């Protein structure tokens, strides 16, 4: 396995005592997979992503990437957030180069790498534009290009399309599938959108809440990933199974509260 999460537990101290957010998380992701972790609010999705990103440390357990324990952020992982986190005073080219600049990459090399990934996401002609001149979907593509410019082994995505309207979100889904197929990068994405997860992922980790645990791992085998697949009964079956599972876990969490 390329990514391994082994017996991971995470709790936070509160005035009422320890709050267990993640409990006994075990999962693995192969190199080149596109996986989604899905769960309702309170399932610890973002907390799990932060452990994998190295932005936070588990209370116990371990995260390993390519056999090495994660102890902090690293260039092997690129991060894309729901909000674009672009610098408004920098143009698209400068925003895409920014991470490379922080790493001390020489100017010519970072310019070439950023330009290449802007071409990958289809934004070469907007290299000199400011973020305010871009649509929401275009801003998110800049954020993805910036993450890819450092040439990470894995792309971590924290509900990256949650702030987009329905039509833009659908076009971004198709863009992401094309990007993944062309680059072969490993993608770990969290979302609360069941249809989004079924459409994009090879596998889905369904998280239960209070505390967050992996309740089920679903393998998604669709005959194609075009937009018409959403009308197919196979897609509906996966969607309904996942929604029923999350609904059941939500009811259990409320009953236990």
TrEMBL record:
PROSITE patterns: ABC_TRANSPORTER_1, ABC_TRANSPORTER_2. CDD domains: ABC_NrtD_SsuB_transporters (cd03293). GO terms for molecular function: ATP binding; ATP hydrolysis activity. InterPro entries: AAA+_ATPase, ABC_transporter-like_ATP-bd, ABC_transporter-like_CS, ABC_transporter_ATP-bind, P-loop_NTPase. GO terms for cellular component: plasma membrane. Pfam families: ABC_tran (PF00005). Coiled coil: none annotated. It is a peripheral membrane protein. Residues 3-234 form the ABC transporter domain. It is found in: Cell inner membrane. PANTHER family: ALIPHATIC SULFONATES IMPORT ATP-BINDING PROTEIN SSUB (PTHR42788:SF13), TAURINE IMPORT ATP-BINDING PROTEIN-RELATED (PTHR42788). This is ABC transporter ATP-binding protein. It comes from Pseudocalidococcus azoricus BACA0444.
């Amino acid at each position: 396995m390329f990514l391994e999460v082994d017996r991971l537990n995470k709790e936070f101290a509160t005035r009422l005592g320890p709050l267990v957010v993640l409990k006994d998380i075990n999962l693995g992701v192969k190199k080149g997979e596109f996986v989604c972790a899905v769960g309702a609010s309170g399932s610890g999705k973002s907390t799990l992503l932060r452990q994998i990103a190295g932005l936070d440390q588990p209370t116990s357990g371990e995260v390993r990437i390519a056999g090495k324990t994660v102890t902090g952020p690293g260039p092997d992982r690129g991060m894309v957030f729901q909000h674009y986190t672009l610098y408004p005073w920098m143009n698209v080219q400068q925003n895409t180069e920014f991470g490379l600049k922080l790493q001390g990459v020489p100017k010519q090399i970072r310019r070439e790498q950023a330009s290449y990934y802007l071409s990958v996401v289809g934004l070469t002609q907007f290299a000199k534009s400011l973020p305010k001149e871009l649509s929401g979907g275009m801003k998110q593509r800049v954020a993805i290009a910036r993450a890819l410019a450092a040439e990470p082994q894995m792309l971590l995505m924290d509900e990256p399309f949650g702030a987009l309207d329905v039509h833009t979100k659908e076009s971004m889904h198709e863009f992401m599938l094309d990007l993944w197929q062309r680059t072969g990068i490993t993608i770990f994405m969290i979302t609360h959108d069941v249809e989004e997860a079924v459409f994009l992922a090879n596998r889905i980790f369904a998280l239960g809440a209070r505390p967050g645990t992996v309740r089920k791992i679903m393998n998604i085998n669709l005959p194609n990933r075009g937009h018409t697949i959403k009308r197919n009964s196979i897609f509906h079956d996966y969607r309904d199974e996942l929604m029923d599972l999350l609904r059941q876990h939500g009811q259990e969490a409320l009953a236990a509260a």
